[in-house]
């Protein structure tokens, strides 16, 4: 069963249902996407001439930025409506991006060792099987290639976490069930997380990266800036994202 079908089975709302809304949100600039894209680019470094795969690309926010920075980019996503939105944007402003429908847990359409860099912006927590996804990413990366992943920070965007003022008068995040690894859905009818997400602890992510033969090169917990900081001041001192640049080992990953 696809991730979207699993989500729909749970409550009837999946990525296909919110695809138009999500595309409009990202294009509106109201979401923290500028920060996510800036974080992906900062970790990716100089991508000019690199073969890059953007996994879980959605409507292509990071994909387009990587292509504009000179990479030869493929975007892959499981949701047909978001791949269609990405293709429409590519047709309107061509950057030479190839988009395909593909499940990140297999990336079956893509060859072994075909990419210098794989990126995954705000999608790892939306994909049910983290081990399968990392194995697929590892397979399509050339030995020594890099993997850049940006995720919702699991320490602060845990299920049903809320924003509250602390004793110092500053807004913070109240997290009550960090250790419960579960599929959860935000009750916010205007939130991205109404499509559901797989909450995992930070150590689960880090241990999975190690298990699949990745080594950590850099981590970022970027603060909100500009309009995002004015709209969501809690994320100025509490990071909304956790992001890593990993290096794929030259021998096969341990399972
Ligand atoms: C929060 S969106 C992020 C999209 C894009 N990277 C961005 O930054 O806007 C999560 C994406 O994960 C995709 N996704 C969920 N499960 C997937 C899977 N098994 N394989 C590929 N993509 C998947 C969804 O279709 C959606 O586009």
Would you give an account of this structure?
- The chain contains nine helices and eleven strands.
- The protein has 255 residues and is an alpha/beta fold.
- The strands form three sheets. It has a seven-stranded mixed sheet, with helices on both faces.
- α2 (15-28) packs parallel to α5 (80-92) and α3 (33-44) packs across α4 (61-68).
- The longest helix has 14 residues, at 15-28.
- The radius of gyration is 17 Å and the shape is globular.
- The structure holds S-adenosylmethionine.
- S-adenosylmethionine binds at residues 3, 15, 26, 36, 56-58, 61-62, 77-79, 82, 103-105, 121-123, 126-127, 192.
Give the total of beta strands: 11
Tell me the distance between the termini. Answer: 23 Å
Assembly type:
single chain
Beta-strand content estimate: 15-25%
Radius of gyration: 17 Å
Based on helices, strands and strand pairing, what is the structural class? alpha/beta
Uncertain ranges: 1-5
Mean pLDDT: 93
Helicity, as a percent range: 25-40%
- Placed side by side, the strands forming the largest sheet appear as 3-2-1-4-5-11-10
Silhouette: globular
Identify every distinct bound molecule in the structure, by name, code or SMILES: S-adenosylmethionine
Please provide the ordered H/E string of secondary-structure elements. Answer: HHHEHEHEEHEEEEEHEHHE
Instruction: Report the major sheet.
Output: 7 strands, mixed
Number of helical elements: 9
Essential attributes:
34% helix, two-stranded antiparallel ribbon, 255 residues, single chain, 11 strands, disordered N terminus, binds S-adenosylmethionine, globular, 9 helices, 24% strand, alpha/beta, seven-stranded mixed beta sheet
